[in-house]
């Protein structure tokens, strides 16, 4: 499976643009957390590439710790099931937590995560998402830092998957269609 698959559509955001934008986000976050430090809490699996790049562009003088949790509502399809599963939420008591998300669509996943992190006693809570799907006015989650606002398209690459494929692509692409069984690995 690679970027030449029929399922992979046009490139929406090239890697170079992603990296420039992440440097800008990391600078802002470093300014905001100067002297405070933060726990970068990456949402698996989709956020793992973004989280790894983001923390390495933060000011080395900031005290950065990392942790991970798993959240999912999509199964293997391209539409939300509406039910959000959270696995392995780490201890956040008294911590300044930055949730690191790959993409926010309906906002249900993030809303549920934010509620749980607050309930578990975080001292402060902000969220960074690489991608924010436009046209969702009814959301109840909070976004503090956004990489790119994108149209309502299903996208893959740079950590984002379709049925666990395409996470390794360096650029972000639109998914053309759901692969037929004979195209699956
Ligand atoms: P909600 O609707 O809860 O969904 O905001 C957010 C989660 O759904 C996944 N998601 C996507 N994954 N391409 C993906 O690979 C997409 O276009 C997409 N849209 C939503 C993602 O896991 C996110 O955390
Ligand atoms: Mg996700």
Spatial gap, N to C terminus: 7 Å
Q: Are there runs of 5+ residues with pLDDT below 50, and where? A: none
SSE series: EHEHEEEHEEEE
Residues in helices, as a percent range: 10-25%
SS class: alpha/beta
CATH topology: Rossmann fold
> Which range does the strand content fall in?
25-35%
Largest sheet, strands/sense/barrel: 6 strands, mixed
Q: What's the total count of β strands?
A: 9
State Rg. Answer: 16 Å
Output the CATH class name: Alpha Beta
Output the number of helix runs: 3
Mean pLDDT: 90
Query: Into how many domains do the coordinates divide?
Result: 1
Bound molecules: xanthosine-5'-monophosphate, magnesium ion
What would you call the shape? Answer: globular
Question: What is the spatial order of strands in the main beta sheet?
Answer: 4-3-2-5-6-7
CATH A-level architecture: 3-Layer(aba) Sandwich
Q: What does this entry look like structurally?
A:
The chain has 185 residues and is an alpha/beta fold. It has a single domain (15-151), classed as Rossmann fold (3-Layer(aba) Sandwich), CATH 3.40.50. The protein has three helices and nine strands, in the order E-H-E-H-E-E-E-H-E-E-E-E. It has helices at residues 15-32, 48-56, 108-119, and strands at residues 8-13, 38-44, 64-72, 85-87, 96-104, 124-133, 145-150, 155-156, 172-175. The strands form two sheets. A six-stranded mixed β-sheet has the order 4-3-2-5-6-7, sandwiched between helices. The chain has a three-stranded antiparallel β-sheet with strand order 1-9-8, with helices on one face. Helix 1 (15-32) packs across helix 2. The longest helix is centred in the first third of the chain and has 18 residues, at 15-32. The protein binds xanthosine-5'-monophosphate and magnesium ion. Residues 43, 46, 101-102 line the site of magnesium ion (MG).
């Amino acid at each position: 499976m690679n970027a030449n698959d029929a399922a992979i559509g046009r490139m929406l955001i090239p890697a170079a643009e992603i990296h420039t934008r992440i440097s800008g986000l990391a600078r802002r976050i470093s300014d905001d957390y100067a002297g405070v430090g933060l726990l970068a809490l990456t949402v698996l699996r989709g956020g793992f590439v973004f989280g790894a790049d983001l923390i390495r562009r933060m000011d080395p003088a900031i005290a950065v710790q990392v942790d991970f949790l798993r959240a999912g509502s999509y199964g293997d399809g391209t539409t939300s099931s509406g039910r959000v599963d959270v696995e392995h939420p780490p201890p956040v008591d008294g911590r300044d937590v930055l949730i690191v998300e790959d993409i926010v669509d309906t906002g249900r996943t993030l809303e549920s995560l934010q509620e749980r992190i607050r309930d578990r006693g975080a001292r402060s809570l902000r969220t960074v998402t690489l991608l924010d799907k436009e046209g969702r006015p009814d959301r109840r989650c909070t976004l503090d830092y956004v990489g790119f606002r994108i149209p309502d398209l299903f996208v893959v690459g740079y950590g984002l998957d379709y049925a666990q494929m395409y996470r390794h692509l360096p650029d972000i692409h639109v998914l053309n269609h759901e692969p037929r069984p004979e195209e699956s690995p």
